[in-house]
Amino acid sequence: MRSLHPPPPERSAELRRRFVEEARSERPDLATLCLLIGAAADGTLDEAGIDAAQIELDALAGRLPYRPGTPRAWASALRELLGERCGFHGAQGDYQRLESSLLHEVLRRRRGLPILLSVVWLEVARRAGAPVYGVGLPGHFVVGLGEAGATAEAKPAASEADTRGEATPERQVLVDPFEGGRVLTGADTELLVAGATGSPLEPSMLVPADPLNVVLRVLNNIRAWAEARPERSDVSLWALDLSLLLPSRPAELRYERARLLVRRGNFLEGADELEAYAEVVAAVDEPAADRIRDEARAARALLN
């Protein structure tokens, strides 16, 4: 397992500029944003490497049959190519590796977290013309094929074909790239949700995931990896910085970044950011703002 380190400051600044530009474009490109995250994490990923990753996604899409047909036919074709022939899948050990959250590394290793494997499925299927979208189930990311928002394995209303005893095609199929593209039944999906939340599956959980929400979820996974490894607080910092560049993100990330700066010994900048965040919070919760100001004073005291 190689140790990944961010690029020099000049390169990092350029990557952030491009990240902002792509994230605020009319149609943000998921693969591009994920590859920019990879370049922010891995100083060895240069422009040629980014281009090579995009070319590989194009090449994989070119290996799919031409428009195989129904959602299930698309699922079968993707599983055969990506899961079986190319060997994309996941394992529990992948949660312990930063590479599992970086698209260029997932393309190289054929291994990754559910959401990054799903990005591979999404980008390959989209390039091939499939009706595809991400589905951010609680605790597990999967891919939908077919009619967005339809209940998994659901059937449309009775038709003339039904009255003749013919099979009615599914409106939506969910697949799990972490398991090599296994098609999920409605019961499978309910079990995934129940295992993560203890609650039943709700139709709202099957809504297609917005690309920027996918990107934020990828960055959240990177931060979770780094938080378990205090010696890699540098990873937490750049992941927070990218998260804060997204057009829509939780305001609490500013507070998290300020506290991280203090933990890293940057007491003055951390205190400044705590005070700035306290002013935002004061508009809705003055006692909470006072507690944050106390943290800022404590951080400044560490300078003495």
UniProtKB/TrEMBL annotation:
Recorded superkingdom: Bacteria
Domain Protein SirB1 N-terminal: from-to ranges: 53-220
Pfam family name, one: Transglut_core2
Record-linked InterPro entries: SirB1_N
The family this protein is said to belong to: Belongs to the UPF0162 family.
Protein name in UniProt: Tetratricopeptide repeat protein
Organism: Streptomyces pratens
